[in-house]
Amino acid sequence: MKNEGEKIKCDHSRILIVFSVKGVENMTATSRSTSDAFSEKYSIYGDMIFKLSMVYLGNYADCEEVMQEVFIKLLYKAPQFESGEHEKSWLIRITINCCKDYVKNFWRKNIVSLETLEIASALPDEMELTEIILKLPYRYKAVIHLHYFEGYSTKEIAQLLHIGISVVKMRLKRGRELLKLEMEEIDYER
Questions:
Q1: Which of 164, 165, 161, 136 is CA-nearest to residue 150?
Q2: C-alpha atoms less than 13 angstroms from C-alpha of 119 in its C-beta half-sphere
């Protein structure tokens, strides 16, 4: 049995989350089910949240911070969800807001990162494309990620980002144009 104050670690594909409990022997069936439910949510939504935050922040460590914040909000402040899709859209909205808050953070603005950009994808072709997308202005990379990587329609993206459908369509169009120019430039350099 675990001792008082010992930590339980749940290691998933992207980040290590540590839960502090008051001993497993003291855990009720409800708290065990909460822990199991949390682990399930993490395995379902962890990659999506990580990739979305990588699009916004472009740094592995910053994405870990945002993921922690998002899952803490899911654990303690989540509303009653009507469906799985409602929960997913709530998590995307929370992730976007956390990323925006993180970018506005005083400390982040005043540090110079010496790290090179870490890319979340494993495939070389995907890495190159992800690098190009990360170079796009914020307004374009968000809609491109949600549309092409998460599979959302323009109407759903408009609702998630609180912008008009025509704005989403225009950002997708301009984002694709910028991607095309970047990819042509890379092909030209080869």
A1: 161
A2: 15
pTM listed for this prediction = 0.56
Pick the more confident residue, 102 or 25.
Answer: 102
| CATH number (domain holding residue 31) | 1.10.1740
* 39 closest CA partner among 15, 76, 12: 12
Side chain identity at 132, as an amino acid letter?
I
Instruction: Extract the tokens encoding 93.
Output: 């909205």
How remote is the C-alpha of 47 from its chain's centroid?
7
Taking only the tens place, the pLDDT of each residue in 54-73 is 888 888 888 999 999 999 99
Q: What is the CATH number of the domain that holds 151?
A: 1.10.10.10
Contact 144, 133 (CB under 8 A): yes
d(CA 45, CA 5): 28
Number of domains forming the structure of the chain = 2
> In the chain, what is the greatest distance between 2 CA atoms, to the nearest angstrom?
64
Where is the domain boundary, 97, 119, 141?
119
Q: Which residues, listed in sequence order, are joined to residue 10 by a DSSP beta bridge?
A: 17
